[in-house]
Amino acid sequence: MSAILGSKRVEVWKKSKGFCWYCGRELASVFDVDHMIPISRGGTDEIGNLFPSCKSCNTRKHDRSLEGFRLFMAMGGINFSVDQRALLQKIRIENSNALNFLESFEAEQIDFFKFWFERKGL
User: Fold this and answer.
1) Are 63 and 40 a contacting pair, CB within 8 Å?
2) Please, are residues 58 and 71 in contact by the beta-carbon 8 Å criterion?
3) At a CB cut-off of 8 Å and minimum separation 6, what does 9 contact?
4) Three-class secondary structure of residue 36 per DSSP
5) What backbone torsions phi and psi does residue 120 show, to the nearest 5 degrees?
6) Domain residue spans in the chain?
7) DSSP type of residue 40
8) Is residue 46 exposed (0-12), middle (13-18) or buried (19+ Cβ within 10 Å)?
């Protein structure tokens, strides 16, 4: 993880005037700098890819893309183990018709889930 320091960190904070980019929680002088596109996925330390985040949101976002984080949050912020994901995949294969319905329902839920910066039009 790269450390964002000095004037670049101040510039990141100013993007939201001291609020978490994702949940809107007011940030103290101590805050995380999130990479919208994670470094592990080809993101950079350029200012356009850096956003202020509370510790909780940055930890939950981890190395997810924005849409991956949206899906994660829309589904209640649940992390599944490798075994649980394998079981879900098996259920998906065995119950594809029922899951098609659930996926369309989930898509509606996800479209409804907006982050703070989207609700503020930033």
Assistant:
1) yes
2) no
3) 33
4) coil
5) -85, -5
6) 6-119
7) G
8) exposed
> What's the length of the chain?
122
Coil, strand or helix: which one is 99? helix
Rounded CA-CA distance 69/62 in Å is 8
Q: How far is CA 112 from the centre of its chain?
A: 15
Alpha-carbon span 26 to 20, nearest angstrom: 6
- How confident is the prediction along the chain (122 residues), in pLDDT tens digits per residue? 567 878 999 999 999 999 999 999 999 888 999 999 999 999 999 999 999 999 999 999 999 988 888 888 877 766 666 666 666 667 666 655 554 544 554 444 445 578 888 888 88
The dihedrals phi and psi of 50, each to the nearest 5 degrees, come to -110, 135
